[in-house]
Structures are given as structure tokens and as C-alpha cells.
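As the work plan foresaw, our protein records have gained a C-alpha cell line. A representative record is set out beneath this paragraph:
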Amino acid sequence: MKYNKIVYLFSSSYRERYRQDNINVLAYPSGFIMHFRYDRKGVDDKLLNDIDSLKGKEAIIVIVDSEKGNKGVFPKFYPVRKAKIIKAELSGSVLHLYFELLPDWIDHTEIDYDSLIKSLKERPKEGKEYLSGKFIVMDQLVQPIEFSPRTEAWESIIKKISVLESYKRTLFFKLDAVREVSQDKELKIGNIDKHVEILRGYVIRSGGKYVLEISLYLGNDLSVVGKDKIVIRTDEKIFYPVIPKEISINFRVDKQIIYIPTKQVFFDNLTYLIIELEKKYLSGPKIIIPLKVKYNRIKFGLSFLIFFAGLIFTGGVIPLSGTTSIIIKVIGSFMSTATIAWLYRKIG
């Protein structure tokens, strides 16, 4: 039986930058856009002749580790996640590939995928010192294969790759969700700038309160437990201090919730939130979350309306006299002063 063809995006563990990409692929939530770069020599010839055909295609991200043998270096394959290609662009000798991460993890609980990937005609292959062959190809979807959005599938991937020398001293974590506290609603990821197709993030409200939900997994080397920590960085002009500002590594498997309150702002703002490992002893993800902070138009409109109404009453625009005039002026002064104090407290 033939299955639909799919693109295989092989990602080496040879260099530190590639390993960081692989760790980040396992950290970002579905909907985010990632960027891989491929030397044109590593692109299958059929795809190289029709780069535009890649757009819209589903793909599987495959981490490639290498084992040294008597006759050279041999590949070991770990497919981890499904993706969808958003943009492909050949610039000189480099193919730039932008893809959306999908919620489908590849479950390694009962299946060893290495031999299945090795059945592909084109793929990374053994070499004397470095792996050779093609690192981006299109072929039939290997079978059997098990997709799952569950955290248990993510953990099965970590268990597989954390025993490799390349990832032994790695803390893995992933962003599970961003929720608005007042509505207990999970935010959806989308474009935060209509002019930039690949800029995906969250839209949040000025003055809103949010929580991040994070899953953590330390596969090996428990001797470093408590010695490293995850830090959360935000723009202090837009956010109050997050709680907690850092997360200690105390367990092999853990789940953490971070509280993030936003300040009031006058205009829409594009900003970011960074979650990363301090990296004293371990390597780990670094995820940068683009954010669009929208100011509350209704709240600010009403506040300015009250402020100007107060000025009108205070300035005597409305012709009144005697005790009534004094009372109206006192109320107007209070309205204006209270509005200014509220704005100062919210923005300052």
C-alpha cells in the first residue's frame, strides 16, 4: 500500500548550533515558525529543481546522530515531530526553509524508527569523517509510524535521545500553553504583524494577567539537580516582575506555572518573552516568544472622557452659580485628579 509523500527534514547533531536547533524543536509549542538552513549539496536534486513545490508540504523533522565505526561515521535516526513548510527560498548556496511546528509528536514508546528511516533511498549516509548524502528529501511516509499530541509521546522522544553523547547533559523543556487568568482561556498562536508572514506569536491585553505552563524533563546526570535554573526575561517597560523569575531544577520530571502580569500601555506594542536555561552545567532550549500587547481602547477612552468632563465642570463651562457651582467644581476637580492618578499608577 502506498502512502502520501512527505518531506523529511534531517537535522544533524554534529555542531552545537544544530544541536540547539534540535533542542528548540522539542521546546516550542505548535504554531510557531522555525528556520532551518541547508547547503544546496544536501538537498535532493528533484526538490532543488522545484523549490516552490515545497511550500505547503507536510514534513517530518528527523534528528540525526552519528556513531563512529571502524570504517567511518554512521547515521542514527530519530524522527521527532511533524511540521508544515511555510516558505522555501534559495539564496546562493543555501536553502532557507521556514516551517510551522505542528502538535504531532512521533511516539517512540513501542517503535524503533531508525531502520525505517534507513529504508529511504535518499537520506544522510555513512562517510569517512562526516555524514554524506541528502538532508532534505521527499519520499513515502514510513510505516508503521505513531503520531500523538500527548506529553507522553514527547517524553518518549527525550528518553531515546537523552542517552546519546550529544544530549546527555541536556535539560529538555517545552512551553505547553499560555493562558489568560481572568478567563482561564488558552491563547492561540497567530500572525502578530500582517506584513511579516513568518512572525508568529501571542496577542495579549494591556493590563492583563497571564500564566505560562511549562513541562520539564532531565534525562540523565541527576548530580546537577539544583545547580542550574531556567530564567524568564521580559521587557520591564511592559511587564511587571514575573513570578517566579527563575525555576530551579529539582526533579527529573516536573511541571511549572509562571505568572506574568502586564502593565497598561498607551499604544500597541511588539515585544518578546525569552525562556532559557542559565547553562552553567547543562545545555537546554532557548525559546523567544514574540508578543503583541494591545492597549485597552475602551478603558482609556472612558478615562479620558471622565478627565475632560472634569475639566469642563472645573472650568465653569456649564453656567451654574452658588452652592451648586462649588459642588460641581469639586466633583470635576476630583474626576480629573483621580483620572490622572489612575493613569500614573497604571503606566508609571
About this structure: Confidence is low (pLDDT under 50) at residues 300-304. DSSP finds six helices and 19 strands in the chain. Residues 322-347 form the longest helix (26 residues). The radius of gyration is 27 Å.
